[in-house]
Design brief:
Strand 1 and strand 2 form a beta hairpin. It contains four helices and two strands. The chain has one domain. It is mainly alpha-helical and 122 residues long. The longest helix has 35 residues. This is Ycf36. It comes from Synura sphagnicola. Keywords: Membrane, Plastid, Transmembrane, Transmembrane helix.
Length: 122
Amino acid sequence: MIFEVKKVFLCPVPEDQKPITEYLLLTKNSFCVYPKKKVKKSSFFPNFFGFLVLFPFFSLQQKFKQSRFFYEENSWYQAEIWEKPFLVIKNDHLLNNQRIGEKLQKLCLLLLLTLFFSLHFL
């Protein structure tokens, strides 16, 4: 579904600056796929690395929530604004609620558990 949306909705935003491309790169990254694992198997993971995984998902979630997207065509001096069409906004909200929100919930739960265990066993 995501790949079809990328093909259908052509926009002036460069491919490497689109939130959907950033999401696909995060899902391919083995370090960021870690929140998909079960909490029992991942409770030994250190808190520091959990925070490193948490920040890209929070920034990506904010990009998906916005109906306007700021991008740069040639250089950082030429900032442009692209207003997303309704279907792109709808798809972004769906992806945000079902995929990114779910991963953020699991990751926050994981961080709370590891923080609890690390403080408990000090």
